[in-house]
Design goal:
Length: about 550
């Protein structure tokens, strides 16, 4: 107030929340998101059925899929969704753990804030705890693994798929995942690089999950363009084109004045000749398979069929890139530029019937650094869940190969970190040690949730795990076994996860907790009103 006149800084209708109220509001929203996915954690986690505005159904217990499908409104809750997305991009697995951990860190921080510990002190303590946790993971908890240790890599894949709906077929799928990732792994300098995007995953419902197969080559979800084309081509020489094989319409308006019927015939003959020339050019360089990214005219297909050339149109750009890599061919813009040295090679190109549709298989490629996995399953929902599980498995195997370090699963890593961080807290001193202790307590939410979701007594589980980790014969690999609900050596049980999943989950959770805790003022502008129904400003359509 200035001499009785109110000063309006914010626009009318803007909402503002300050201090403790703002922090409490943000923490409550983040906790709500964490609680939504918490019941999906672990091999006994429950599934969620999500129905979008179009009525499409998704059934999954994949943390990131659930959070992507939920339409989140609250800004702090949106930050937790970002955590899951980052975790998914970086590691493929651990999305639920990262979100649950972030929610728990915020929940525990609330107690500290009520005890008048300043949020910046808490964030500093969390950062110190995170730094120490990452060091412990690398130097003390992690176990080195050799790239040739196929059994361990398969265990990593099985653990990642353990909580998904493919539990019964995970042994076979884990073998496929490891084989696929090892095929595309390259050595660059002194490190291994596994680019999962080079593995093509196609899904077709029909059959069972057990029918899922790995194909050393490329699968295209396309059939040949003409029924008279050969069904299979051996010793294929493949032309990869990304320009259309048709006569383009002019970009500007044009008219052709024809004065006699002969001219129409000439016009049609010329068009026909253009199509023939295209096919002759392809034949001339020795190609017997044409893969085109754009459209192909039916007349061109007719002439290609006459020449015994197998052709497919409208192939995705990502598939074209994989084809180029697998066959050693070059993607050419126009037919004029096509030469014999641009052709890719494959031993076998054929059309096979998979389920209801025809697909093109290119196998026996010369530079087969690309592989494909064809997923089968009883229904559309099953194949989608298998695809999600397989993507997770491929990514965790790739990060294990790249980093070469694994950690025990089943809550063992989090429990060991909690015990070690409690011992580390007093060395920090000051009020920050309270935050480090809080960080350690928050880590226990993972074994707690695992036990809860498995139908076991969470308190007894925690007590047993603590004894195993803190005792004189402390076993850092002791985690919750779902066979009997007791503490067991996770390494012996082959429940293992890549180091990257753990470090990424911890850093994402700590960073988002720090971000939310630092906010002490929320200013939300007034939402714009929804458009009026009907036509025109009056809302009455005439």
């Amino acid at each position: 107030m200035l001499q009785g006149t109110p000063i309006l800084v914010l626009r009318e209708g803007a909402e503002r929340e300050k201090g403790r109220g703002a922090t409490a509001n943000n923490i409550a929203a983040a906790r709500a998101i964490a609680d939504a996915v918490r019941s999906t954690l672990g091999p006994r986690g429950m599934d969620k059925m999500l129905v979008d505005s179009m009525g499409d159904i998704t059934i999954t217990n994949d943390g990131v899929t659930i959070l992507k499908e939920i339409d989140v409104e609250h800004p702090a809750a949106k930050m937790l969704v970002e955590v899951a997305k980052t975790q998914d991009q970086q590691c493929g697995d651990g999305t639920t753990s990262a979100v649950v951990l972030a929610g728990e860190l915020l929940k525990r921080s609330e107690t500290l804030i009520e005890q008048n510990v300043h949020p910046t002190v808490i964030t500093r303590g969390f950062s110190l705890a995170l730094e120490e946790a990452e060091r412990l993971l690398r130097d003390e908890i992690g176990t080195k693994v050799s790239p040739d240790d196929v059994a361990t890599l398969e265990s990593v894949a099985k653990t990642a798929m353990g909580s998904k709906g493919v539990y019964g077929s995970r042994d076979e799928l884990a073998k496929l995942a490891v084989k696929a990732v090892k095929t595309i792994t390259e050595k660059r300098g002194d490190r291994l690089v596994a680019d999962v995007s080079l593995i093509q995953v196609e899904k077709k419902h029909g059959g069972t999950i057990a029918d899922t197969e790995l194909i050393e080559g490329i699968i295209l979800d396309k059939e040949r363009g003409h029924p008279r084309m050969p069904r299979e081509v051996k010793d294929a020489r493949i032309a990869l084109l990304n320009s259309a094989l048709e006569i383009k319409k002019t970009e500007f308006e044009s008219k052709i004045n024809i004065k006699s019927p002969n001219q129409i015939q000439n016009f049609l003959d010329q068009e026909d000749k253009t199509f023939r020339d295209m096919v002759d050019a392809i034949k001339g360089v020795g190609a017997n398979v044409v893969i085109c990214q754009k459209n192909v005219d039916d007349v061109v297909f007719h002439y290609l069929a006459k020449s015994g050339i197998y052709a497919v149109k409208q192939v995705k750009e990502s598939d074209m890139q994989k084809l180029a890599r697998a066959t050693g061919g070059k993607i050419v813009t126009g037919i004029k530029e096509l030469s014999a040295k641009d052709l890719g090679k494959a031993a076998h190109v054929e059309q096979r019937k998979v389920g209801e549709s025809n697909m093109t298989f290119l196998t026996g490629c010369t530079a087969a650094k690309s592989v494909s996995i064809l997923i089968r399953g009883g229904t559309e929902h099953v194949t989608q869940e298998v695809e999600r599980s397989l993507q997770d498995a491929l990514k965790v195997v790739a990060s294990t190969l790249e980093d070469g370090i694994i950690c025990p699963g089943g809550g063992a890593t989090e429990m060991e970190l909690a015990v070690k961080l409690r011992k580390f807290a007093p060395t920090v001193g000051g009020r920050e040690q309270l935050a480090v202790e809080t960080f350690a307590q928050a880590l226990e939410v993972i074994p707690w949730s695992l036990a809860e979701n498995g139908g076991y007594d969470a308190i007894n589980t925690l007590i047993e795990l603590r004894q195993n980790h803190e005792g004189t014969k402390g076993n850092k690999n002791s985690g919750l076994s779902f066979e009997d609900g007791r503490a067991n050596d996770m390494m012996a049980k082959h429940v293992v996860e890549p180091l990257r999943v753990k470090t990424q989950a911890l850093s994402s959770a700590a960073e988002v907790a720090n971000l939310v805790l630092r906010i002490d003022d929320i200013i939300a502008s007034k939402k714009s009103p929804p458009p009026s129904p009907g036509g025109g400003p009056g809302g009455h359509g005439h």
